[in-house]
Amino acid sequence: MPDDVEDLLRELSPQVLGTLGRRYGDFDAAEDAVQEALLAAATHWPRDGVPERPRGWLLQTAERRLVDQWRSEQSRRRREQETAVRDGPAPDVPDQDDTLVVLFLCCHPALTSASAIALTLRAVGGLTTAEIAKAFLVPESTMAQRISRAKRTVQDSGEPFALPSPAQRPTRLRQVLQVLYLIYNEGYTSSSGPALNRTDLADEAIRLARLVHHQLPDDPEVTGLLALMLLTDARRAARTDAAGELVPLAAQERSRWNHPRIAEGVALLDSAIGSGSVGEYQLQAAIAALHDRAPDAAATDWPQILALYGLLERITSSPVVTLNRAVAMAMVDGPASGLAVLDDLGDRVTGHRVDVVRAHLLEMAGDRAGAATHFDAAARRTSNLPEQHYLTQQAARLRSSPTD
Amino acid sequence: MSKYLLVVDFQPGVCEAPMSQWQPDEITAHMDYYRLLHDELVASGELVQSEVLTGPELAAVVTSDGRGSTVVTDGPFQEFKEWLAGFQVVEVETRARALEIAARLSAVPGPGGVAIQQPIQVREVMEQAPRDTGAMDDWLQTVGDGS
Fold first, then answer.
1. Under 8 Å between Cβ of B107 and A289
2. Considering only Cβ atoms within 10 Å of each terminal Cβ, which end of chain B, N or C, has fewer?
3. Does A112 touch chain B (CB under 8 A)?
4. Is the ipTM of this complex over 0.85?
C-alpha cells in the first residue's frame, strides 16, 4: 500500500470509529466494522484511486458492515440495537473529529496498561492485530483475545461516547499521556534483532502525541510529552553502535543526533513552559533538552539539571527521580555528595537501578573494584537483555584494566 | 507486562504412583483440569505458548567443535524426575499473577482427586524494552541522561 494511502487511512480510522460509536453506542462492534472497512480500503484504493470523500466512503462501508453483523446475529438472538437500525436512519451526527473521544475510551481506567496500549494502537493507530502482536512478540491469537477483552471491558463500563466530564478530564488525560509514553517506551530501546519492528512504535507514539497536541494545543503537559518524545528520540541513531550495543549518552556521537527534531522539541518546550503550570513531562523534557543542547558531554549544564531534578522530585515524590538526582548531584558536587543522596534514600528503592547508580558513582570516586561489584549485581537483577549486556561489559571493563 | 516461563518436570509432588497406575477417570480429571486452565489463559489473553514435550526415548545430545565434527548421542542420562515434561509461557501484568498461575498448575488433581502439588519452576523472560514508565526513567539514566 502506498504510504500516503496508509497515512490517510490511519488518520481517518479513529474519526470514523468515533462517528459510528456515537451513532450506535456499541464500541466493540463499531471497532470491528472499522477494521474491516480499513482492510477494504487498503485493497480498493491503491487500485481504483482514493475516493473523492474518503471519510464518507469509510464511514459508509463500516456502517454497512456493522448493520450486516447485527442482521446476522438477529437470527440467533434479538438485540436492542438492531431495532434502532431498522427503525430508520440514525439521528444526524455532526461531522466532527472524535479522535480524542476514542483515545479517552481506549485509555479507560478499567483497563490494564497493556490492554490500553493494544487497544489504542488498533482503534486510534489503525494498526492490525497482527502488526500489534508482532511488535509485542506474542502470537496473534493472544493479542486478538486481549484486544477483544479490552473492548468488552470498555463496552461494559457503560461510558458514553463523549469526552469525559470537565471534572474527570485532567485525570483521564494523564492516563492517555501515560499510555502514549508507554507505547513510546516499547519502541525506544530497540535497535536490531528480534525487536526490530518496535522502532515503529516510537514513531507511532510520536504520531499519536502530535495528534493529541493538535487537538489540545494549549495543554502544557501534552506539549511537554510531545517535546520529551522528540528530544529523546533525536538521539536514537547514536544510542547504539554498529554491533547493536548500547552507547551511553556521554559517549554518543552528537553529530548523529537528529538536530531538526531537537529544534522542534525545544521550540515546543519553550511554548509550554511559558504557559503557566509545570508538570513532570515538561520537566523531563527540559532535562532532555539540556542534554541535547550541549555541544559535548563536558559542556552539559549539570547545575541546571540538578535543579530540575529537584523540582521533579517535589512533584512526583518518586524515589526513582531521587536516584537520578544523585547522579546529577555527583556531576555538580562530586561523587561523595551523590553517594550521600543514595545513602539517604535507604531502602525506599529496590531493584537493580540502585546498584547501577552506585556503580557509576563509585567509579567516579575511583573505587573500581566496588564499582565492578555493583555493576555485576545490577546485571544479575535486570530483566532487560540489552541493559544486561551493557552492565556486564562495564564490570568486565573495570576488571580488565585496573588502572586507566 | 512481563513474560514468564512455567516449567513442569516429572517431579512427583505428593503422588508417587505413575500415571499408568491411576484410574482412567482420574487421568481424565487430570487432563480436564489442564485443559480448563489452558482455555482460561487463552481467553484472558495471557497464554503465549504452551507445549508438552516427548520423553527421554526421543531425546538426543549434540556436541560440535564448530568445524564439522558433530557428535550425536542418546541422553542426557539424568534422573527421570528431572526431565522437562512441558512448559507454558504466559505474559502477565504482575509477578504475583505468574505465581498464581504456577500454583494452579501445581494443584492439578491426581489419584483420589488430591492435588499432586508438583513443584513448578517460574522464570522471568528477559525483556528488550522497559515495561513501565518507572523502568523507562531508569533506562534513560542508564543509556543516557545521567551516566
1. no
2. N
3. yes
4. no
